[in-house]
User: Fold this.
Amino acid sequence: MVSQVRAELLKLLSLPTAWVGLVLGLIAAPALALVSAGGTRRAIENGFHADASDAAFQPLGIGLLGALILGVVVMSSEYTSTGDDSPGARQLQATLAAMPRRWRLVAAKAVTLSLLVTVQGTITAVVTLALNRVVLGDLVPAAAPGRVAGAVLYWVLMGLLAYALMLIFRNGIVTLTVLILNISVVSFSYLLTKVTPLAAYLPDIVGTHMFLNEVGDVRIAPLTAGVVMTGWVVALLGLGGWMFDRRDP
Amino acid sequence: MITIEGLTRVRGRARVLHEVGFTARPGRVTGFLGPNGAGKTSTLRVLLGLDRPQAGRALIDGRRYADLERPLTVAGALLDGSGAHRSRTARAHLRWMAASNGLPKGRVDEVLELVGLAPEAGKRAGKYSLGMSRRLGLAAALLGDPPVLILDEPVNGLDPAGIRWMRAFLRDSAAEGRTVLLSSHLMGELAETADDVVIIDHGTVVADGTLAEVVGEHATLEDAFLARTAGEGASW
Assistant:
């Protein structure tokens, strides 16, 4: 398993698209924290945030794109045609030649992705929160370590969610479009919460309760939120892995 | 040693393979011959664990490919294309493949040298010519110095010098005691390299033996091949 994870790390880090995801995830949130500092300051002073500590975590949402890109690319790169000379040939053939045990491959990719996103998320969260303290001063309270860990775990689980959807749909464009629309333009999950309170337990919404205090009208304890989101991701990974194992590539 | 027994694969309504069986022995080049669409690639894909058969089995030294712990050290395979993501360099591609099977980093430069790709190793695979892609695919197959080689149309896209090089390489590999199984639709090519020949047509093995046995009283392998396959109204 160690050699498989090493191989997947080398594989991912020698892919330009993966670096887009890595770098985007690292710089987007701190950049947004700087750019939006004025607005955030006014919002807090005007009492827009019921819980000012949430304001410090808000910019992290944009950096999540990086984790999603990594989650997609780790699998979509396997399905890219290797060249115009042989349109049917894909990297997956080489991957399965080197690592034919499919469940082990699915696991190795999940571990690799988790490692990368943990590092990425930790650096981003720490830098963003520190920047907030610099630009907003005492308007935002210092972030509790537990909430930072919750935010990082949210990133990792969202990356894994993207990977699980890739395993199921085998199409990076569809997966990425759905996830990006959902987190950045209009959150379908959030809209659904207006229809049924149960939607608060959808994976992308419930996970935010791990580090935000004010999400919609429902209060869910951070631990419950983490357990529910992990359950979703494990179930979807299980389904994706099962489909990957059964299908002829 | 490659053992294929009773391999049957149906895809939709089409019968791709029907009770395909043959062996490829160490120290010999076994040519797997058939028209396009006859089932050569399908057989090799099952052998490599990419596709699943409905019946039968395909074993390498008595084991299924998918059960091998470090498969690159047991069998090397060359299928269509280079296998490398087009935005990855050849060296990076071979690096991760080597790492996945616990092979030393130095082995990457050895195989790049062996297939004559060392000067171009830093180029992205997407910029490679067809011939260079084949060489990269072969380099990957050779990483683990495997005793078994499985090659699908290995001379496709090679220039005359490359074809001659490949022919010598395959002969040398067999002389070293390796099992070499290569598929081709080029009869002249196979007649030059193969010790044993298996002919497949419409998913069924129609001839299997040494080159001399399969040619029989026909003048050439091509004549023998056409005599065995044309009767069924082959598409060409």
User: Anything to note?
Assistant: Chain A has one domain: 2-246. Residues 76 and 172 of chain A are 5 Å apart (CA to CA).
